[in-house]
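Slide 14.
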Amino acid sequence: MIKSDISIWGSVLVVLLLMISVAVFALIDRREMQRMLKVFGLLAGQSALAAAAFWLVYRFESWWVCLLWLMLMFCLALAWCLYAMRAQWQQLLLPMALALLAGTFVSCGSLALCVPKHFFFPVAGILMMYLSSSVIGTLQTYQRSLMHTEAHRQYMLANGATPLESLMPSIRRALRAAVQPHLKKMAQPLLAVVPLLFGGMLLGGASPAAAFIVTLLLSSAALSGALVAAIVAVYCFKR
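Slide 15: predicted structure.
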């Protein structure tokens, strides 16, 4: 077990370094110190809840547990999307829900066929994080573009363009907003992918080959799911 390899003295040293950092901010900026302690407390609490959830998932590993876990991740992702755009949550509830559902079906469904269950549980959470950020970025960009190009769209319609043709500039911007964050992370794997997934799998005992394959599969599934979710979100938003 990895917990037997953790040094007590090293852990004490890390805690002391954290206390020193907090003390420095206590002398310089007490407000920032309070924010630091609050964020660290939230991190510890959320990590403890996630550890308990994963323990239950691994303890009762079966198909219905996988389904319940996926439903929980879907509800959390939808709640986060609605909170990020809470000023219009009633208007955006259906587009966000359908977009997340389509993206989840494509990304998590395809990945479930590729990786074993003990890989699928944490990877599904990462995919839902990618999908939620893509849906939020897509709808925000699409709304801003519609407002800024209203006159241009009316001009195109008056000159014989179809409604779809008049919306294409906004649709392109929205789709770029959905995939560009993933492309940037994929273009810099040593800075973005390795510490988050590859290194985490190595810490969990996976072989370097398995970590490499799962990283590629996750990147492909995340990009495909984000694109599908963005298309569904844009399509449902105008209806």
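Speaker note: The longest helix spans residues 117-148.
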